[in-house]
Amino acid sequence: MTFHITVDGRSVPVVPGQTIGAALHAAGVRSWRSTRFGGRPRGLFCGIGVCFDCLISVNGRPPERACLLEAEPGDEVTTA
Amino acid sequence: MTYDLVVVGGGPAGVAGALTAALAGLRVALVDSGLRLGGQYFRHAADPKPAPGLDRFLRQARALDARADVLLRHQVWAVSREPDGDLLVHCATRDTAAPTGRSGTGDERAVVLRARRLLIATGAHDRPLPFPGWDLPGVLTAGGAQALLKGGGVVAGRRIVVSGTGPFLLPVASGLAGAGARVLGVYEANGGLGLARNPVLALGKAGEAAGYAAALARHRVPYRTRQAVVAAHGEREVEAVTIARLDHDWNVTAAHVVECDAVAVGYGFVPQIELGTQLGCRTRHDVDGSPVLSVDATLRTTVPGVWAAGEPVGVGGWRLAELEGRLAGRAIVADARTGAAPGARTGPDSGVRTDAATGPRTGAAADLRTGAAADGRAGPEGVPVSGGAAAVVPPLFARRRERWRAFGEALQRAYPVKSGWQGWLRDDTLVCRCEEVPLARVREAQALGATDARSVKLLARPGMGWCQGRICGYAVSCLAGERPQPPRRPIAQPVTLGALASLTAPDGGSGGGSGGATAPDGSSGGATVPDGSSGGATAPDDDLAH
C-alpha cells in the first residue's frame, strides 16, 4: 500500500496520493530550504501553492512546490 | 479547437458552472492546479473520507469528467484576448510522461486553450497577518493545516494552537482534534459574539456552529475570545507561542507562553482575482475591504465573455460558490444559445446589466427588477433562450443567493481585522517572507517618503518575491494605511522560460501567439530552461506584481 521515497538518502514512507510536502511532514521533516538572505529554515506555510515557501528539488529537477507535487515511488529529495 | 467555455478553478463554483454548461451541450474545459478536483473546501485524499457535501461534489466531478476536458495540474498564468474576441487561456504544466513514476523530464511546458467564454472560479487563499516568529517551520496558515489533513491525512503537529479570527477556525480545530492532535486551544481575536448578536448569522450558522462547538467540547478544546497568538518562538522550528489577551482593537493587555509544536493561523481570506484584473474587469471593495470582481445578477463581469463565481466575487463559502457557479453556467448557456455571441460581440444590448459596480452585490433583486424584459422561453435543458437576467436566474435562486451573500457579508462584519495587530510586530519581524523584509525596512521606506503600499514596495521590496505579494499584500496595505488594491499581475503564476519557449518551438505545436491552441495533450515543447533559483523568467521579479 505505502511506498517509499528518499530524503537526503533516508527512506520515508508515502501513502499513495500524498504530496511530497505531506509525506515529509508526516515523517517529521518540517523544513527543507534555507532563505537567501537570512539562511532561515522554511517548509510548508500556506499548503495550497500560494506562498512558494516549500520549494524543493526532486530528482535533481529545478525547485517545485512541495505542497502541490504528488510523491512518486523512488523519488529522491534533497533538502538544503 | 475553440471551447465554448473554459473554467479556471476546480472547486464547487468551477465544477458546478462547468457541469451546467457541459450538460447543456457546450464544449467545456476546466483547468485546475491541483492533483484532484475539489479546490480548498472539497480537497480530499486519493481515497476520500466522508465529509459534508463531499459525496455530492464527487458525483458532480465524475459527471463533469465524462463530459468535458478536465485538466488538472495546470497552472493558469495569463488570459489574453484575441482580435476576434476569443480568449486565450495560457497554462503551464509539468511533463509527467509515464503514468507510473515521474519518468518525464519534469520540465514545464505551455498549454494554450482557446475559448469563447471564461468562468473565473479561482477561489481564495488564507489571509495571514505577520507576527514575530511566523516564519518558523511548524507555523502554518489555518487553510494550510486543513489542506495537509484533508489532502494528505497528515496532522500538522502533536500539540497545536489554532488562532486568528472567523468561523473557519472551528472546522480546522475540530478536524485536527478529530484526527488525533492535541489542540491546545482556539484563540479568536474578536469577541466571537457575532453569531449571537446578528440575527442573520444566528439563524444561518447556529446549527453548524453548534456542531463544531460540540466537537470541540468533546475533545476538550478550549475556545477563547479576545485572545490570539502574537508571537512564535523556537530555533529551527516552533517550540512555543505567546498567547495574548487583547482589547477591542487587538492591543495586547496581558500575555503568557504555551509550549506547542504547531500553529495554525488565519485572519479571513483573500479572493484570487488576478485573471479578472488582467482582462480589465471592474472591481469593488468587499465589506472587509478585499478587492473582488464586480458582477451582475447573472455573475457576468464588466468584461464581455467573462463570468466569475464564488470567492472572487466576495467570500461567502462553498454553498454560495456552488450556487453561483450554477447560475453562471446557466447564463453562459443562455449566452451561447442566443447566438448573439460571445466575447467582444456581446454588448450592453445583450439584455444583461453589466454595471454591477454601481450597487452592492446584494442588490441582485434590484438587478432583476431593472433587467431587460425577459420572455422566459425555456430551451431544451430548461435554460431560457433569452438572455434576460430574470430568465437566466429564477427568482428563487436569486433570493437564495442574496440571502447567502448577506450572510457572508455579515460574517465579514462580525470578524474584522483590527489595527492593534501592528503592535505585535518588532523591528526585525519579517513582513514579507519571500524577500525577507522586516518591519524596520518598511518603516524606513515610509520615513523616506513612501506614502502608499506601492511606494513602500518599490523602496523596500515587500511583495516582490515568489508569491507576488499574495501573502504579505494585505499586511503591507494596512501598514501603509490604505485599503488593499486590486492586484496587478500580468503573470498570475511564475512560469519558466522553458514553458514560454515551448509556445513557439517548431515541434511544440502550441503557437499561442497565432492563436492555434494546443490540445490539452499537446506534445511537449522543445527548449527548456530550468526555472527557479535563477529567477530568470519568473514573474515575481519586480514590478509585475501589484
Describe the structure.
The complex is a heterodimer of chains A (80) and B (546). Chain A is mainly beta and 80 residues long. Chain A is 9% helix and 29% strand. Chain A contains 1 helix and 7 strands; from the N terminus they run ββαβββββ. In chain A, the strands form 2 sheets. In chain A, strands 2-1-7-5-6 form a 5-stranded mixed beta sheet, with helices on one face. A two-stranded antiparallel sheet of chain A has the order 3-4. In chain A, a hairpin with a 2-residue loop joins strand 1 and strand 2. Chain A is globular, with a radius of gyration of 12 Å. The mean pLDDT of chain A is 94. In chain B, helix 1 packs parallel to helix 8, helix 8 runs antiparallel to helix 11 and helix 12 packs across helix 13. Chain B is an alpha/beta fold. Helix content of chain B is 29%, strand content 20%. Chain B is globular, with a radius of gyration of 23 Å. Chain B is built from 15 helices and 23 strands.
Number of helices of chain A: 1
Largest sheet of chain A: 5 strands, mixed
How far the N terminus sits from the C terminus of chain A, by CA atoms, comes to: 30 Å
Measured on Cα atoms, how large is the radius of gyration of chain A? 12 Å
The secondary structure category of chain B is alpha/beta
Q: Describe the global form of chain A.
A: globular
Low-confidence stretches of chain B: 97-103, 341-386, 505-546
Q: Note the run of SSEs of chain A as H and E.
A: EEHEEEEE
What's the multimeric state? Answer: heterodimer
The chain pair forming the largest interface, with residue counts per chain, is:
A-B, 44 and 51 residues
User: Total strand count of chain A, please?
Assistant: 7
> Which range does the strand content of chain A fall in?
25-35%
The main sheet of chain B orders its strands as: 4-3-2-8-21
Strand content of chain B is: 15-25%
**Which residues of chain A form runs of ≥5 with pLDDT under 50?**
none
Choose one word for the global shape of chain B.
globular
The largest β sheet of chain B comes out as:
5 strands, parallel
Number of helices of chain B: 15
Q: How much helicity do the residues of chain B have?
A: 25-40%
